[in-house]
Amino acid sequence: MGSPETIADEIDRWFTGSAADGFLLRVTRPGDFALFRERVLPILQTRGLFRTDYTHDTLRGHLGLPVPDNRHAQSKQEPQAIAAE
To answer: Is 13 in a helix, a strand, or coil?
Structure first.
């Protein structure tokens, strides 16, 4: 509770003080979340505490993991002919 700056200050204090490495928000009313998103997040983004853009499209990309080959899309190898003796 409080002004957007007060809320951002508290989140900043917990995060930079190593008391938290992330937050889960419980949203019971969409309007409350909209206020948080429109008023508090820009402050956190300005402070560098909340990303403004994603660098990858997938969790795998964010974690730096390689994309495995799709075993269903690989071309099937043709069976080799048995040589006549």
So the answer is: helix
